[in-house]
């Protein structure tokens, strides 16, 4: 799990961060990401995207709950147009077993961070925001690997302060953490 700070949500920030990335990116329907799929993408070949089926279902459900099932140029029609425009990438999970049908798992991990966004304004500067992104990445990586973040951070900082060799830095990564008993 990686978080990175950018001074806005524009697509060029994602493009810069993903320089050199070549793979599949599971995303929501934010149009700023469209530039990542173009042959003119800076920093690499076009990225293959996988859109989230849960977003699609949610959009239809919201309209149905609010308006019923009547159609034409309605809100339901708008949501169906969303599905049509993302149809190819909504099927990515069918051809690549690494891709999930939706991004709910990641969104559940991101939710506490997103809710904390206003609190994170303490950063006061782009460098503070970048540092916050690094710390959030480490904490969420611990959680994904079933590691208690405070225990990992305490042990890691203690090891570094005690002179842990740079050549063995991989030993300190969350997925390699062995809590002392």
Broad shape: elongated
Order of helices and strands: HEEHHHHHHH
Number of helices: 8
Decide which structural class fits the backbone: mainly alpha
Q: Helicity range of the residues?
A: 40-55%
Radius of gyration: 20 Å
Number of strands: 2
> Approximately how much beta-strand content do the residues carry?
under 5%
pLDDT < 50 stretches = none
* Mean of residue pLDDT values: 83
Instruction: Compute the separation of the termini in Å.
Output: 27 Å
Largest sheet strand order: 1-2
Biggest beta-sheet profile: 2 strands, parallel
Task: Spell out the blueprint of helices and strands.
Blueprint: H1 11-17, E1 24-27, E2 48-51, H2 53-67, H3 75-85, H4 87-90, H5 92-95, H6 104-115, H7 126-144, H8 149-161
Parallel strand pairs: 1-2
Helix pairs in contact: 2-3
How would you sum up this structure, described in words?
The structure is a single chain. The chain is elongated and about 65 Å long. Strands 1-2 form a two-stranded parallel sheet. Helix content is 47%, strand content 4%. With 181 residues, it is mainly alpha-helical. The protein contains eight helices and two strands, in the order H-E-E-H-H-H-H-H-H-H. 12% of the residues are buried. The mean pLDDT is 83.
Short characterization:
The protein is mainly alpha-helical. The model has no long low-confidence stretch (mean pLDDT 83).
